[in-house]
Specification:
With about 140 residues, the chain is mainly alpha-helical. It contains 6 helices and no strands.
Amino acid sequence: MLSFLLSASANAYAFMGNTELQKKYLAISAIADIQAATKEYISLWKLANLLFREGDIKRAYTYIECSMQDATFCNARYRTQEISELLPVISRTYEKQVEGGENTNGCPGHSDICLADHIADCSDVHFLSDEAAECSPESGEHYE
C-alpha cells in the first residue's frame, strides 16, 4: 500500500512537471517494493524510463534489467510485455556506450536519489530467496 501511495505521488509530480520529485517518489516507491519483497511492480521500470530519457543510461539499464527479471519470475505477462517494449532500446543504447567507451556511470551531479547506492545490481535486490519471495498481491500472479 505504501508503494502505491508513493507511486501516486510520483504521478502527481509528473503531471505538475516536477521531474526531480517524480524521480524521488519513484525511487522511494521502488525501494518500498523491494523491501516488501514485491516482485511485480511498476515504479522501478518507470524510473528506468525516466532516467533513460534524461541520459542516465547505466542506471536505466540496471533498473530495467531488474524489472524484467522480477516480472519474469512472477510470470507477470502484462508487466513483462510493458518492460519488453523499453528493454531493447535501453539495452542497445547501453551496449553502444560501453563499446564506445563512453561514460555510463549513473548518479550525475547533485542527484539526491541515487538508487544505485542502494541497489548495486538486481542480485542484491533479491535479499530473500527466490522460493520465499512473493509477487504483488494485487497482480494475482504468483510463480511457484
